[in-house]
């Protein structure tokens, strides 16, 4: 539910920004249908508005969207076995859906959460894009409304539960998340948009490291066995009376 609300706000923002910046109404609508990648769509439109060519805009979007490749491997079991289900699952994959799916351990629950979340997000995103594009300049500066932080906040709420448990490999996941976050934050002022996110993926190999359990203390010398007491000898028989 929260993911759908966030997507509706950000999708409307994307449609409004694209149209108010001078693009025809059909451009954001087609992008949402066939690209369905919010960050990449914003970056692509931003490059065009900054004066970059179509090739530069498409390359920027592809580079940013490459972050979904390891996410796809993480939830590939939820795609299904048929080619069309894999195609639809890969197309509708988002950061938020991955975080939502990974909260569940049962494969059946994962599959249900994957498809329910992805289809709902896809429908909401596209409907909101159309409404935002029709609104045009009405929404104005969407960043001033705080809509740009809605999705990151929800993503953080989805990721945190998977980092606070005590299961196997939790420390390795926390290390990877910490290193990746530091890399992304530190390089954001220095690198083009989207590149810090890709750089943060360099921390993924840290999840393969497992904590070495502390060595067990060697067993001490065994105490000698205490000999069991021998049974008392039987009493001699009483002498017979003549």
Automatic annotation (TrEMBL):
The chain crosses the membrane at residues 6-35, 42-63, 114-133, 145-164, 176-204. Pfam families: AzlC. GO terms for biological process: L-valine transmembrane transport. InterPro entries: Brnchd-chn_aa_trnsp_permease. It comes from the Bacteria. It is found in: Cell membrane. Residues 212-242 have a biased composition (Pro residues). The keyword Calcium does not apply. GO terms for cellular component: plasma membrane. Residues 211-242 are annotated as: Disordered. This is Branched-chain amino acid permease. It comes from Streptomyces xiamenensis.
